[in-house]
Amino acid sequence: MNPSTAASPSLLAADAGATVRRLSRCVDEGGLDSPAEMYRVLGALRLLADDLTHLLPALQDRLEEGVLSGRVAGRGDAVAATWESVGDVGRSLAHAGTVALLMTKELENSQVALRDLATP
Questions:
Q1: Could you give the CA distance from residue 54 to residue 72 in angstroms, rounded to a whole number?
Q2: pLDDT-based confidence at residue 76 (cuts at 50, 70, 90)
Q3: Which among 66, 68, 16, 104 is positioned nearest to 96, based on CA atoms?
Q4: 110 with 35: CB under 8 angstroms?
Q5: In angstroms, rounded to a whole number, what is the distance separating the alpha carbons of residues 65 and 82?
Q6: pLDDT grade, residue 18 (50/70/90)?
Q7: DSSP code of residue 95
Q8: Which positions ≥6 away from 57 have C-beta within 8 Å?
Q9: What's the confidence (pLDDT) of residue 46?
Q10: Which residue among 19, 48, 53, 56 is least crowded, i.e. fewest CB within 10 A of its CB?
Q11: What's the rounded mean pLDDT across residues 79-106?
């Protein structure tokens, strides 16, 4: 893909968020009434949660690289504050990764239960 036409990571993240919000509105408005469609949605959400468990540690690595390389820097206390902030983000990302792993398992369980209910 041509770098000049590639979407930036922040735009991709915004698009992902907008898609999840549209899905939420669709579900809230009764657009998910078929067991087969619910099964497919749960499967797609399980994959999304699994993808997040891989993305979040990569984000932490990039933050650390930025601080260590000097791309994310400041003067005096700002450097310490930046490093502390990166650590806070890392802990938050680790927690989010753990939650995503739990969500993946629960979505898998829900998907299996739904499949079992839909099977005559």
A1: 23
A2: low
A3: 104
A4: no
A5: 12
A6: very high
A7: H
A8: 93, 94, 97
A9: 83
A10: 19
A11: 79
How many residues comprise the chain? 120
Close Cβ partners of 93 (under 8 Å, ≥ 6 residues apart): 56, 57, 59, 60
Mapping DSSP onto H, E and C, the string for 14-74 reads HHHHHHHHHHHHHHHCCCCCCHHHHHHHHHHHHHHHHHHHHHHHHHHHHHHHHHHHCCCCC
Residue 69 in this model has a pLDDT that exceeds 80: yes
Question: Which residue, chain included where needed, has tokens 């398992």?
Answer: 105
Per-residue pLDDT, averaged over 41-55, amounts to 83
